[in-house]
Amino acid sequence: MAKVAFIGLGVMGFPMAGHLASEGHQLRVYNRNTAKSELWCSQFAGESASTPREAAQGCEFVMVCVGNDDDLRSVLLGEQGAYAGMAAGSVLVDHTTASANVAREMAIIAAERELGFLDAPVSGGQAGAENGMLTVMIGGEQAFYERAAAVIDSYAKMMRLMGPVGSGQLTKMVNQICIGGLVQGLSEALHFAQCAGLDGLGAMEVISKGAAQSWQLENRHKTMLAGHFEHGFAVDWMRKDLSIVLDEARQNGAQLPVTALVDQFYADVQAMGGNRWDTSSLIARLKPRD
């Protein structure tokens, strides 16, 4: 069992840290909102820290799951950042969905301090985090990956080293491109079925056994038809992720016309007040409005 710090106890980090504690790792947690740290400590074995630096001191691994590039810099850098508390040889595992550029930036600073760094964004949503069934896409050196794999396995159903630092974030971008297109296609299919007078549920049951099958179809079509959009990964977060995708595409020359269009459709959902609806809410903009 390892000494582990977990920084960031949001809807993903809270259960992820819980799985680590439940498997017997020695946990110290930090969250900007101290009430969340106190709540976590009331449910799991571990202690809270008042700063990222304090959380990281004496730990072999520091896991981070925060909101964006700037949040990552704020908890890693500076006098009270996690890097200031980490000992040479320890490993930083960043589960934030952020840019590949910030991963490379943080990895350079880590190397200067003789620390390991892995960018390791996750997919699977709140349910995947709570059930310990996340997919983890990892970038970094093989040696650091091999050391951290047993710890990450506490909440992963699938993990893979994709290449050098930044490769985990790039793979997560591929994931978000797929999700955006799939959800828009599913939204249009359900909308078309309703306009054609078909039984939407029946149509989905039939086509789910053929080439149109997908996780989104099987897990979201019923709630989309019912107009229930309370499944964790908010539209605001998806737009943040898609902005990272589109920025990377501008740098590498990738053509993403559908992704850019879906991003604007999510902007429509935000304008409808759906900032905190989940990503399946794309269908809402297709329904007639009063």
Structural description of this entry:
- This protein is an alpha/beta fold and 290 residues long.
- The protein has two domains: 3-164, NAD(P)-binding Rossmann-like Domain (Rossmann fold, 3-Layer(aba) Sandwich); 170-286, N-(1-d-carboxylethyl)-l-norvaline Dehydrogenase, domain 2.
- The chain has 13 helices and nine strands.
- A six-stranded parallel beta sheet has the order 3-2-1-4-5-6, with helices on both faces. The chain has a three-stranded mixed beta sheet with strand order 7-8-9.
- Helix 8 links the parallel strand 8 (134-139) and strand 9.
- Helix 9 crosses helix 12 and helix 9 crosses helix 13 (257-271).
- It starts with a strand and ends in a 19-residue tail after the last helix.
Concise summary:
The protein is an alpha/beta fold and 290 residues long.
Number of helices: 13
CATH topology of the largest domain: Rossmann fold
Q: Helix coverage percent of residues? A: 40-55%
The CATH class of the largest domain is identified as Alpha Beta
The overall number of domains is 2
Low-confidence stretches: none
Kindly report the name of the CATH homologous superfamily of the largest domain: NAD(P)-binding Rossmann-like Domain
What string gives the helices and strands in order?
EHEHEHEHHEHEEHEHEHHHHH
- How big is the Rg? 20 Å
Query: What is the topology, as strand order, of the major beta sheet?
Result: 3-2-1-4-5-6
Structural class: alpha/beta
Shape: globular
CATH architecture of the largest domain: 3-Layer(aba) Sandwich
Kindly report how far apart the N and C termini lie: 58 Å
Range of strand content = 5-15%
